[in-house]
Amino acid sequence: MIPRGLRISAALAWRFLVVVAALYVVIWLVGYLSMLVIPLSIALLLTALMAPAVQRLVRVRLPRSLATGIVLVAGLGVVGGLLTFVIVQFTAGLPALTQQLNESLVQIRDWLVNGPLHLRHDQIQDFIDQTINVLQENQAALTDTAITTAGTVGSVLTGFALVLFILIFFLSGGELIWAFLVRGAPRQVRDRVDVAGRRGFASLVSYVRATALVAVVDAVGIGVGLWIVGVPLVVPLATLVFLGAFVPIIGAVIAGAVAVLVALVTNGFITALIVLAIVIGVQQLESHVLQPLLLGRAVQLHPLAVVLAIAAGLVAAGIAGALLSVPLLAVLNAGIRSLVNERDPDPSEVDVLRDQDARPNAESAGDAPDTPDTAAPEDAVGDAPADKA
User: Fold this and answer.
1) 183-218 pLDDT, tens per residue?
2) Can you spell out the DSSP letters for 270-338?
3) Which residue from 17, 45, 250, 369 has the highest number of Cβ atoms inside 10 Å of its Cβ?
């Protein structure tokens, strides 16, 4: 008595609800274990960045453990050197910045008194006193915030140690770890799962390379703009922009704010506005052109998918979600395409450190008009050789 269309709709509906419930449980578990999931994900990103260097050292007959140690020490040295350079340069220029800041404060006070506002000295002093009173009244809240910040710093340090620990094992024995995990797949589909995972990691390697290129463009663009307008500490500020580009949203905002503040203190209000326009322009170019095009080309994602993934990750999990959303989407895209299009793949033919392996089945059915047989709906896809992908 029930119409067939209604029966089919009901069957699809309850299955859809089951899938949504399962995804909710998975997302809840990831959030509950975020202190483990986030360091693990960051370690995987760093593995994609450092694995090519380790592989090159292994090819010159260095033991993998020694190659891993060399790359880790070199990577930590480069990051530590950049941070030390930024701190030393800012420290060296701090006396001049302090003097410029004092002069700027005097100019602001004179403008408030003699400018269009015509404020009196007692009004300015009353404002300063009120600000001090507000800080004293909220001292308990500020103290609690400081304690919370100290706890956050402790969590960050713990996470950093965990990232370093995981990274060592990923670089030295990642192949063995992946082989152990693949054993959990059924034997008849084990090779397909193995190749899909390798394709996904290859896509992750391409993503990290594209992100580094975007960071370089940001640093060069803002650095050249600062040099043209005559802002001091150009190289440290450009270095800070480069490092901040790897942290979505907040990294670019902090680096740009520091550049604008230095321009305001040293060169005045007009120069600060020009620097602000430069920073906003470069960041708009990055977010609307470079990231969608370069990242989309590197990981074979549409620019709209990249933008939506970043927005969804930011809404769902904040900065960590924005950092991990596009890599996750790239891995899933490459892995699913491999599972769908490759029938009899050979894992030994997949080199995860080569860019072409991040684009599996680029010449599959519908993508290769030069081959007449690719018009077949399923056979052509199933017969596509793995090395052609």
Assistant:
1) 998 888 888 888 888 888 888 888 888 888 888 888
2) HHHHHHHHHHHHHHHHIIIIIIIIIIHHHHT--HHHHHHHHHHHHHHHHHHHHHHHHHHHHHHHHHHHH
3) 45
